[in-house]
Design a protein that fits this description.
- It comes from Streptomyces hyderabadensis.
- Keywords: DNA-binding, Repressor, Transcription, Transcription regulation.
- InterPro entries: DNA-bd_dom_put_sf, MerR-type_HTH_dom, MerR_fam.
- It holds the Pfam family MerR_1.
- This is MerR family transcriptional regulator.
- The protein is mostly helical.
- It has two domains: about 10-85, Multidrug-efflux Transporter Regulator, Chain: A, Domain 2 (Orthogonal Bundle); about 95-140, no CATH class.
- Helices cover about 60% and strands about 5% of the residues.
- It contains seven helices and two strands.
- The chain has helices at about 10-15, 20-30, 30-40, 60-70, 75-85, 90-120, 130-140; strands at about 45-50, 55.
- A two-stranded antiparallel ribbon has the order 1-2.
- Strand 1 and strand 2 (about 55) form a beta hairpin.
- It is elongated and about 80 Å long.
- The termini are far apart.
- The relative contact order is 0.07.
Length: about 160
């Protein structure tokens, strides 16, 4: 069995160099049911002791940290599972490219939201609807208008 050199107390590892599910969950601030769910999804593969209890070694610690980092990057568990199953660069790119595009889209939306909010903060008018920045953003959203004031339908 793997020995952990990560400063575990003997009360955590029972002298085996591994962690139980409660200790691993506490180490990362997770509920134990999260680790069980990740196991059912095939993301974790803990060993078992003689009593059938899950035992997590150094590789499992790394795997949990990896899952958390990827989740923080916005990847879902299914995507993380696909990444862990892929071995080639082409497969990895195929999995990550859509995630990157989605993230770019969310960043653009957040930037637009920040621009609107900062425009409202920097507006010297009492009525924010009179601010040039506000009017520009609304005009962009409304789009061009016909002479009769009707929205112009795009032609393709």
């Amino acid at each position: 069995m793997l020995r952990l050199n990560v400063g575990m107390k003997s009360s955590e590892d029972g002298g085996t160099g591994t962690l139980g599910i409660g200790a691993l969950a506490a180490r990362f601030g997770l509920a134990t049911h999260v680790l069980r769910h990740w196991e059912t999804m095939g993301l974790l593969h803990p060993g078992r002791d003689a009593g059938g209890r899950r035992r997590y070694g150094a590789d499992d610690l790394t795997r949990v940290a990896t899952i958390l980092v990827l989740k923080e990057a916005g990847l879902g568990l299914n995507t993380i599972r696909s990444l862990s199953a892929s071995t080639g660069r082409t497969a990895r790119h195929g999995i990550l490219r859509p995630a990157a595009e989605e993230l770019r889209s969310r960043i653009a939306a957040a930037q637009a939201s920040l621009e609107l909010i900062e425009g409202g903060l920097n507006c010297s008018y009492e009525d924010v609807t009179r601010c040039p920045n506000y009017r520009r953003l609304i005009a962009e959203r409304v789009g061009p208008r016909s002479p009769a004031g009707e929205p112009v339908k795009p032609t393709h």
